[in-house]
Amino acid sequence: MKKTHDLWVGVGQRDITPSWPVELQGHLNRIGNTQHVMDPVFTRVLVLGPDTTRVSAILVQIDVLGVDHDLLSEIRQLVSQLVPVQPADVVVTTSHTHTAPAAIRLGTCEPDLRFRRRIVDQVGAAVNEASSRRVPAGISVASSFNNRFGMNRRFPAGSRVVMKPNPLGAVDPEILVAVVTNQETRVPIAILVNVTMHPTVLGVRIHAISGDYPNRLARKLSETVDGVPMVIVLQGCAGDVKPVVRFGDTSFSEGTEEDIEHIGHELTQQATALAHRGSPVADVTCTYTSTTCTTRYAKPIKDMLFDVRDEGSDGADEWEKAHFDDSLLIAERTAWGNRMQELLHAGKLPTAPTAEVGVLRFGSEFAVAFLPGEPFASIGLNLKRTSPAPFTMVAGHSFGTIGYLPSKENADEPGYETQEAFRFYGLPCALHRETATVIKSAVVALLRNSSTEQRGGGESAPVRGEKAPQ
């Protein structure tokens, strides 16, 4: 009798590195085109389904800062033409590296249209590869809480919040690893690694294309594990978490290639140990569910131009000054104000932002939640505590970006993430303080509903193993 399998997985990967000089995206003070390629950037694809013909979901990961709604739609439409999948079941998430070519409009930094075309083309090629290479698969999962590099970057300084190490701020130290194995050969074909830490190790004066520490982790882990599996690093809720390069410093440091190599090496050692001791997921039946939340902005626009006299660089340390030049900030705020005026007069000013969220489930034991924007660490911690799945990855920077997503408790505080960054994302103002609550509730509902459906009703699955610290 022929053995049946509940999960079939195909993997595909393509290099998206452009061959022409490009502007990098992520840091205000990094001006000018690339000088060289430190390491290539990729798109990586998983095709998931119950057999070789049907598709439950497709996971597309891209080494860029983020994608906008237009690029998301273009990718989904292409993928749905290549394989039998609904566009809404194509999950697009990004590494959020700050040393990739410009893929979206961010302040006065315009997207490189040739690069966007290359992304779409290479995603299509990776999807075709993955779809044609589906094999029966199993999954094993393990986690630890040993990421010592992540540090909260919002430091209270009187009436301000500045970008400095805050040892008392929220971080998510969990490293969660899921190994996807070919059930026929018993060889790993893919590994998912969930880490919560901004990929901003490389200093602002470095003009080189790089995937930062996540790509060093992906390459090293792939080379370490038997079978040379494709590795996808899913960036967690790292909106307020930055890597520490020099421990004990009261300021962040400008990192180098040696630093991403070191961090990638240490994370690889931990991920390798987890990959070798993972617990098999008993039921790998795959489902994907998603929904779209309608939220609102914090307040109506009254003054289109920000009063820069109130938030200059007074009190900032050398690292912060190197990243936020006052003259460049003024230029960005002016450009933002002009654009908002144009949208207002044209009747196109956005009033009700939407946020897409999704949950990928494998039975009742393992789940991956996808959130848009740059969620704060406390949001990811809360979702992990609330999830009925014993092992839950939370990936931010997914779908079309909505800017920073602070927790309700942080939303009214001062600081770059809460009072400045929305301008770079082209939003009229920051998101309402209840936005995180709305999004968390939607994700929790998806987690619980998909768990109940797969278990046939009843109570949530019992929690096994460690959970994120409260």
How would you sum up this structure in a few lines?
This protein has 470 residues and is of the alpha+beta class. It has ten helices and 23 strands.
List keywords for this structure.
470 residues, alpha+beta, nine-stranded mixed beta sheet, four-stranded mixed beta sheet, 10 helices, 28% helix, disordered C terminus
Question: Can you walk through the features of this model?
Answer:
By secondary structure, this protein is of the alpha+beta class. The protein has one domain. It contains 10 helices and 23 strands. Helix 3 crosses helix 4. The chain starts with 7 loop residues before the first strand and ends in a 15-residue tail after the last helix.
Count of domain modules: 1
Number of β-strand runs: 23
In DSSP terms, counting alpha (H) and pi (I) runs of 4 or more, how many helices? 10
Rg over CA atoms: 21 Å
What fraction of the residues are assigned to beta strands by DSSP?
15-25%
Q: Please mark out the parts with pLDDT under 50 across 5 or more consecutive residues, or reply none.
A: 302-313, 455-470
End-to-end C-alpha gap: 49 Å
Structural class: alpha+beta
Q: Give the % helix.
A: 25-40%
Name the overall outline.
globular
- Average pLDDT confidence is 91
Largest beta-sheet details: 9 strands, mixed
